[in-house]
Amino acid sequence: MATPVIMPRLGQSVEDCILAEWKVAPGARVEEGTVLAVIETDKASFDLESTAAGTVLELFWEEGDDVPVLANVVAVGEEGEDASDLRPQKETAAPPPAVEAAQVPVTSSDASAPMAPVAVSPGGSSEAGVSPRARKLALHSGIDPETIQGTGPGGRVIERDVEAVLAGRPRLSASAAAAAREGGLEPPNHGKGLAGMALAGDMLEPGAIEGAEVEPVKGIRKLIAERMMQSLSNTAQFTLNSTFDATAIQNYRKRKREEMEDSGGPKITLNDLIAHALIQTLKRHPALNAHFLGDRIARFEEVHLGVAVDTPRGLMVPVLRSVCSKSLEELSVGIKELVKSCLEGTVLPDQLSGGTFTLTNLGMLGIDHFTPVINPPEAAILGVGGISLRPVRGKDGEFTPAECITLSLTIDHQAVDGAPAARFLKDLVDTLENYPGEDAGQKNGEETT
Amino acid sequence: MKYDLAIIGAGPAGYVAAKKAGGAGLKVLLVEGKKLGGVCLNEGCVPSKTLLQAAKTYHHALHGEVFGVEVSDVRFNFEKANAHKTKVMDGMREGIAGLMKKRKVEVAFGKATLSEGRKVTIDGETHEAANILICTGSSPTRPPIPGIDGDNVVDSTGILQLEQLPKSLVVVGGGVIGCEFACFFGSVGVPVTVLEALPEICPTLDPDLAKILRGELAKKNINFHVGAKVEEISESEVKYSVNDESQVAQGDLVLVATGRRPNVENLGLDDLRVDYDERGGIKVDDRCATNVPGVWAAGDVTGRAQLAHAASRMAEVVVHNITGREDRMRYDTIPSVVYTSPEVAVVGLTKEQAEERGLQVTTGKIPMSINARYLAEHPGERGLCKVVIEEGTRRLLGVHMVGGACSEMIFGAATMLETELREEEIDEIVFPHPTTSEVIKDVFMAVR
């Protein structure tokens, strides 16, 4: 009997997922756990695994479709079985919006020929039609006449229009013409063959750009692009930079490492220490631990810390929840687990939302300071730079070199003003320079002196 | 004096570049250290082909009885053959000199030294040029074999200076040059032994072709020993070993034809900071540009496609690029020919080369003897035509021929490759009947 594979509910807040890419075709043999498709929420992308073994009978959706959770996605069963009963009820799709014609001017090399404005518009010419002569010339030249903007009566594609397109293109070799006809490939501006003739190897995928590797914007990249633009267009971003002397946290880290070697605890990193000091400081500055919601500002009691992670699939910002009362060790372990799940692709959608403040660190890549981009609706984000040596004047007035780290705080000026943000940053610098301090020391079971 | 283009070397790259650039109105200086025409005209292609035609004529005279032509008292007069050779070379050289004059190319004889800033010094006189084309060709290699400096040892240049035929000849190296000379001397009655280190002669050829060529040449007084490592050359013999077994080839003359190396020394190239490639040639891109702006290289000096017509094409590409026409080398479509009897002519990829590039291919081959014209003109000679086709697209990737005068029809195959014709289109081309060229059409019937 045919079995459906359904769209899983990937989180409490997830109502539908985009079917980004099919990994199987009808007729494929699958086992339980075989990846059927890549699906995306608005936060990340995931593999949809088969929950049944057998032959793929039918794919119910097309790439790019928004699939409601729990809807049937694929039917798996015995070869030749009928799966029509499992077809999900879909809302009647609205006709796709008309695609704006991309105006691609094509220069005619023949000065006496009238300059026909040529545009490539899918389906644009179908109403007025294509003249037989134009069609014949287009097909002989490996051009789809339906993609040409006509200049004849009512926009009819006439021979002149095809000639204008051809004038802007190189001649095609026999194999290149076949690639255009059969594979839908497009010629480059200048071929590598006889007197600029386009060879089969010169032909480009539609949308390809010569000398560049072109890939569609999809998956995580698309999400990042949308969220970044949304961030920059909906917030008033303002960045403050400050530097702190890292001697205190470096010393503390060394001490912790030695302790941990004996006790087998987590390896504490500078980022863990900065995160810990940041959380302590945020507690004193709730204006920075906030969401700007347009007509309201929410200041949170608890800190839910977003941590920017560089993964092979792109930037991800998992959130470590309720960190105010976490010890340094708990924090370190929590961050490490989140990073690992992002790198392995096992992070859950719910772990990728709900942050109140984000920490991003490019210090290990040799960056001194940078301008972090706010993760809306959060009101602020802290960027951490790398270690550099700076002269510090000691109590005796002598300059000694000290390891310093730059902090870059971007705030949404809609939610916070510059002075309170500067006071927060100064407080954070003081906290880091006097780390672990009294508060933190007690939390971590340190003896206070 | 300031030139648009200074060309160093007047071989098939240099004089073609000069002719084209002069024709395009550039102010051109052509520098030659020896004679106009370079190795090709004076020490290579042209004299060797003249001699090979002499050998062919002699062969026809001797073996005409199959056609009912009975000739007695046939003699080969080497002196007269040489005289014809000299006459052809002189005529060609005069032609080039006339052409240079017509195209207003300044020709300077002497040794050119290049220096930074695109300067060319000839006999103490320094000129500047916006562009420099280096096409100084190549020279025969001299492998480190004991006895190679003996008076009885010649290279491909020296063997063309002979005034008398040797009594017997040993050829070290069964490549194209070795086979062509073996064919000449064998055809005019000199016993020849060819020693080739690799398992087959002409190793760049399709193996089927090389095997047939070896078989046909063996009918002309030529003994082939493949897998032969030459150990020592003495006055009347060459010691070599096959599978570690020592053997001796007798011969009063030894031709060493083990390849050619680019002429890059004493030109001032290091001062120009020109890069070399791993073969020791001047490194060029597909427009024949070196790493130094305004400095170009063409022909054997680049170590690529050591063929006169490849050199000429590279020269054209250089002049096109200098004069603003985008052009680039397409090495895959350059034909190559072995001018033996029978001739070998190939263009494009062999099955092995295509598969190395990850292409899925299929091949077809037919014997030349199914062709009426071939059978009429070459009784008893074996020949073969083989094509390599890409699976799926059915695009022609290579044509490989041995038999008769196939060098004269390989350009047709080159045209098919340049325009990337597929089986479907070639099927509609009309070939005149009866011609040997019909094998190129018929061979597709054998493609599976």
3D architecture notes:
The complex is a heterodimer of chains A (449) and B (448). Helix content of chain A is 26%, strand content 23%. The termini of chain A are far apart. Chain A is an alpha+beta fold and 449 residues long. Chain A contains 9 helices and 20 strands. Chain B is an alpha/beta fold and 448 residues long. Chain B has helices at residues 14-23, 38-43, 45-62, 78-102, 176-187, 207-217, 269-272, 308-322, 351-356, 372-377, 410-418, 423-426, 438-442, and strands at 2-8, 28-32, 106-109, 112-115, 119-122, 125-134, 138-140, 153-154, 169-172, 192-196, 222-226, 228-233, 237-242, 245-250, 253-256, 260-262, 295-297, 336-338, 344-348, 361-367, 384-390, 396-402. In chain B, the strands form 5 sheets. In chain B, strands 1, 2, 3, 4, 5, 6 and 17 form a 7-stranded mixed β-sheet that branches. Chain B is globular, with a radius of gyration of 23 Å.
Tags for this model:
heterodimer; A: 449 residues; alpha+beta; OB fold (Dihydrolipoamide Acetyltransferase, E2P); Chloramphenicol Acetyltransferase; 3 domains; 9 helices; 26% helix; disordered C terminus; B: 448 residues; alpha/beta; FAD/NAD(P)-binding domain; Enolase-like, domain 1; seven-stranded mixed sheet; 22 strands
Question: Outline of this structure?
Answer:
The complex is a heterodimer of chains A (449) and B (448). Chain A is α+β, with helices and mostly antiparallel strands. Chain A has nine helices and 20 strands.
